[in-house]
Amino acid sequence: MPTCDNCGKQVSMPYRCRHCGGTYCGDHRLPESHNCSGLEDWDSPGGVFDSGFDDSVNESESTLQTRLAGTGGLLGYFRGNMTFVFLAIMAVVFLIQELSKTVLTAQLWYALFTLNPAHPLYAWTWITSIFSHGGFFHLLFNGIVLFFFGPIVERKIGSTKFTALFLGSGIAAGFAQIAIGYLTGDVAPLLGASGAIMAVMGVLTVLNPDLQVRLYGVIPMPLWVLTIGYAALSTLGMIGGAAGGIAHGAHLAGLLIGLAYGQRVKSQGMSAPGQLQLGRRRGPGGPGRGPRGPF
């Protein structure tokens, strides 16, 4: 039986919010009753609608805003889809990594795709290192976790905050790993989205610790157990000297950032659904026409 995303109450006939895509009981069906993320758009005439009756709205600014961020606008296509944008970038960057190995020197390759402790001020690597990966299975594992957890968190906090969380935590986790490397004497270039993805996982763990997941797609367990287990393995790997080429410090830093931000989101009355859902929910206009949440 479906449950209310806000209070967890089981309801036989749930209400689906067309602004954020959540499922709610009768008590929380109104956007203002469940802290709907879509409320952020309501103060923006261009982001939702322009009735034409408000003389205080500058026509040129409203038109430009509508074209960029409104429904059908350039940025409107990314609203609610940043998870999949990141997945696509990860795949494209990995392909470029593999193809460029045959034409670039090792020094140039590392300067483009890795966050290197020897050159921390190479600002482009703060971003490129997040989307780069050390191998196909590294990319596959990160992609699977982001595919399942990313859309849930993005729907709850909005695409703008989700983008800031992903990139910000990825950068912070990378520099945290460098700092830990200097302390432990294990300094090396690093790459991968694991720190950012652990932040997403941390947010979701706070919002819904009892979310049922399957380890390796087989073993069922609540999300909080998976999170604690992964944190324990990363801690042991970091302090036990068994890193094995894995940036355990970045994983822990990303997780801590996610847990802290998740607590902040939770204090605002937001929660996450009790089960994983694939793809976007259907809206009144059919597939692809449903709500996408705030950008």
Automatic annotation (TrEMBL):
Membrane-spanning residues: 77-96, 133-153, 165-184, 190-208, 215-233, 239-261
Family affiliation: Belongs to the peptidase S54 family.
Keywords, comma-separated and alphabetical: Hydrolase, Membrane, Metal-binding, Protease, Transmembrane, Transmembrane helix, Zinc, Zinc-finger
Protein name, per record: Rhomboid family intramembrane serine protease
Membrane topology of the entry: Multi-pass membrane protein
Taxonomic lineage from the root: Archaea, Methanobacteriati, Methanobacteriota, Stenosarchaea group, Halobacteria
Originating organism: Halocatena pleomorpha
Occurrences of domain AN1-type (ranges): 1-44
Subcellular localization: Membrane
